[in-house]
């Protein structure tokens, strides 16, 4: 009996029991806590989709179809992704006021919470580009010089080399990129709205897009000054050439007339 009592009171017994209790507690937490969090996220997403479906039925279904399949008045939304919705609705282009060659930017009529719900519903119709995070389009770590080169190579043909916009054919136009939310610029490159081609990550990487956005902020920022003097609106060689012909050539003609008049007077004298 003395030997058995001594074994029961071994000094390591309490430590072993404590370790087993901690292991059981950790195992139970690992098993159930992530599942609870995932379930909560899934519930929130489901609620967002339901609310977005209600908003879609009122504001979008008449053109895009009750299930997003598209109609003669609007394209299919299956597979466009949440980013396309966030861009189109977040810039006020959708809902469109009237059909035309191009839907212009206008006042936003939905709150950001409602836009997120609409985006969640449309994303549930088919996989597509997701809404980018601030880390993807923020200025941290961006290369402005690289962004300028990429912009001039891929975007300047339509948007002008500083993003002032430009005319296209058949009443279409490339809008100005001044005062545009960096998130919406990223989404436009990702989704290719209206006349714009899309630039997925296989064409322009996340870093490339971030660099382009940083370049546009550098050339169109509030405190940006033109290093070459008068920028003439930054509209490019057409306005600069016109300025040169009107004022430069005009000044040459005025000087020539003045010299001729002075020479004529000198001869008469």
From TrEMBL:
<keyword id="KW-0813">Transport</keyword>
<keyword id="KW-0472">Membrane</keyword>
<feature type="binding site" description="covalent">
    <location>
        <position position="155"/>
    </location>
    <ligand>
        <name>heme c 2</name>
    </ligand>
</feature>
<dbReference type="Pfam" id="PF00034">
    <property type="entry name" value="Cytochrom_C"/>
</dbReference>
<keyword id="KW-0249">Electron transport</keyword>
<keyword id="KW-0732">Signal</keyword>
<comment type="subunit">
    <text>The cytochrome bc1 complex is composed of a cytochrome b (QcrB), the Rieske iron-sulfur protein (QcrA) and a diheme cytochrome c (QcrC) subunit.</text>
</comment>
<protein>
    <recommendedName>
        <fullName>Cytochrome bc1 complex cytochrome c subunit</fullName>
        <ecNumber>7.1.1.8</ecNumber>
    </recommendedName>
</protein>
<dbReference type="GO" id="GO:0008121">
    <property type="term" value="F:quinol-cytochrome-c reductase activity"/>
</dbReference>
<dbReference type="InterPro" id="IPR036909">
    <property type="entry name" value="Cyt_c-like_dom_sf"/>
</dbReference>
<feature type="transmembrane region" description="Helical">
    <location>
        <begin position="242"/>
        <end position="261"/>
    </location>
</feature>
<feature type="signal peptide">
    <location>
        <begin position="1"/>
        <end position="30"/>
    </location>
</feature>
<keyword id="KW-1133">Transmembrane helix</keyword>
<feature type="binding site" description="covalent">
    <location>
        <position position="158"/>
    </location>
    <ligand>
        <name>heme c 2</name>
    </ligand>
</feature>
<dbReference type="GO" id="GO:0005506">
    <property type="term" value="F:iron ion binding"/>
</dbReference>
<feature type="domain" description="Cytochrome c">
    <location>
        <begin position="47"/>
        <end position="126"/>
    </location>
</feature>
<dbReference type="GO" id="GO:0005886">
    <property type="term" value="C:plasma membrane"/>
</dbReference>
<feature type="binding site" description="axial binding residue">
    <location>
        <position position="64"/>
    </location>
    <ligand>
        <name>heme c 1</name>
    </ligand>
</feature>
<keyword id="KW-0679">Respiratory chain</keyword>
<feature type="binding site" description="covalent">
    <location>
        <position position="60"/>
    </location>
    <ligand>
        <name>heme c 1</name>
    </ligand>
</feature>
<dbReference type="InterPro" id="IPR009056">
    <property type="entry name" value="Cyt_c-like_dom"/>
</dbReference>
<keyword id="KW-0479">Metal-binding</keyword>
<dbReference type="GO" id="GO:0020037">
    <property type="term" value="F:heme binding"/>
</dbReference>
<keyword id="KW-1278">Translocase</keyword>
<keyword id="KW-0349">Heme</keyword>
<keyword id="KW-0677">Repeat</keyword>
<feature type="binding site" description="covalent">
    <location>
        <position position="63"/>
    </location>
    <ligand>
        <name>heme c 1</name>
    </ligand>
</feature>
<feature type="binding site" description="axial binding residue">
    <location>
        <position position="159"/>
    </location>
    <ligand>
        <name>heme c 2</name>
    </ligand>
</feature>
<keyword id="KW-1003">Cell membrane</keyword>
<dbReference type="Pfam" id="PF13442">
    <property type="entry name" value="Cytochrome_CBB3"/>
</dbReference>
<feature type="domain" description="Cytochrome c">
    <location>
        <begin position="142"/>
        <end position="220"/>
    </location>
</feature>
<dbReference type="InterPro" id="IPR009152">
    <property type="entry name" value="bc1_cytC-su"/>
</dbReference>
<dbReference type="InterPro" id="IPR050597">
    <property type="entry name" value="Cytochrome_c_Oxidase_Subunit"/>
</dbReference>
<keyword id="KW-0408">Iron</keyword>
<keyword id="KW-0812">Transmembrane</keyword>
